[in-house]
Amino acid sequence: MNLNIAVLPGDGIGPEIIEQAKNVVLAITEKFGHTIQFTHALVGAVAIDGTGNPFPSETFELCKQSDAVLFGAIGDPKYDKNPKAKIRPEQGLLAMRKKLGLYANVRPVITFSSLIEKSPIRPELIENVDIIVIRELTGGIYFGEKGRSDDGNTAFDTNLYTRQEVDRIVRLACKYAMNRSKKLTVVDKANVLETSRLWRETSQDIVKEFPEIQTDYMFVDNAAMQLIQNPGQFDVMVTENMFGDILTDEASVITGSLGLLPSASIGKLTSVFEPIHGSYPQAAGKNIANPLGTILSAAMMLEYTFRLDKEAKLIREAVSSSLDNNFSTEDISDSNPRKTSEVGEWIVNYITEK
Ligand code: IPM
Ligand code: MG
Q1: Residue nearest ligand 1's atom 4 by CA
Q2: Which CATH number characterizes residue 250's domain?
Q3: Mapping DSSP to helix (H, G, I), strand (E, B) and coil, where does residue 47 land?
Q4: Residue 261 lies in a domain
Q5: Is 310 a catalytic residue?
Q6: Which of 63, 166, 261, 338 has its CA 20 to 30 A from that of 218?
Q7: What's the gap between Cα 42 and its chain centre?
Q8: Which ligand is nearest to the CA of 93?
Q9: Owning domain of residue 227
Q10: Cα separation of 31 and 83, whole Å?
């Protein structure tokens, strides 16, 4: 098979972790007899510096023409410190989501047995956690009308959803549930918000088409609490854009492995694969960031876009093995921390020698 991948390293640690993920994908394609082209493009603060636009049209064109996009991270402290900055790196991410129609963000949260002690939650509560959170990504309050009054003292953001948008994401969640334990939790705030009532009404209609799925509806505040108290009860969760933003950050620390969690943003024109962590600017250029979230995102790409299940499985096996051998970056290994590039090389060797 020939794989045509757009590579968007972005800001901070993005370039370092992307380099390792590329090496791993190269090792995999060589081993399994595929060919691959990586084409790089700018996004985020580096794109603002280079072109004035955080998601330049050349980047958009490249993404559209590629089979899939491998993405690092965006964000730069010089913008975080200035709330008045007119152009921000995050706008690049939102523009990418909207323009590529990346309507579903899929975030698996799994426990790695060698890392259970790292979790802030008691081991017995997280032993078998295996959750997929599906977050709607191109609607809701992120993209609704927003503004300020003339005197600057009043501001608003609008939460807007159409039935079609809810239908599309809940259907996707049902498909995931059907391939797993057939348990779905729809998270909303239907006791207060009209948009949530539309979500609940639409979900109730759709799940009728999937009678095997056991569906629960949960208010977001309760879901936030239950995720900590009893995460094992969840399998597939689906929710709107902002609730999903908050719940996925929360879910990511349950397993004590923020640096390890991958994600897929599924789109109409192409799909984007990225680690869930940010640009971690304090670590940029130091060769200390954990590359595993990006490497596992590349595995999701092989599986989702190319149906290369064996290849993806081998990457996951290599990652688990590196953890079992305590061959990890400093966020995981206190006793003998390894560099970003050393972890990448370890994974590549595992794959090559297997
Ligand atoms: C995420 C991030 C983004 C979001 C930011 C950087 C705009 O937090 O991908 O979860 O809020 O969606
Ligand atoms: Mg977030």
Answers
A1: 245
A2: 3.40.718.10
A3: helix
A4: no
A5: no
A6: 261
A7: 19
A8: 1
A9: 120-255
A10: 48
